[in-house]
Amino acid sequence: MKRKYLFGLLTFILAVFLYSLFVIVPKEREARENVENSKKIMIGMSLRQVVKIMGEPDNKANENEGMTYYYKPPAFSSDGIFISFDAEEKVQKVFYYD
What we know:
Layout: H1 2-38, H2 47-54, E1 59-63, E2 66-71, E3 81-86, E4 91-95
Antiparallel strand pairs: 1-2, 2-3, 3-4
């Protein structure tokens, strides 16, 4: 009985470790890179320049006179990183995570 319990516990610990190694860590690394890269974005940059720095967004939203790109924030943030573009695809505003 003790062996089954020990084997089950070790299997669970291994599963949690592998999950964090292959799922959580890459997502967190990407989120940290988003934060660092977003500091390089300046008002007036073109959409192409932003994508070159930030990569493809996690989500896009078309608005009346432009669009907004969304990038993942770090863990435990209440909001993400939003980059708002005008109709000419120039950066209008950068909203940093909270």
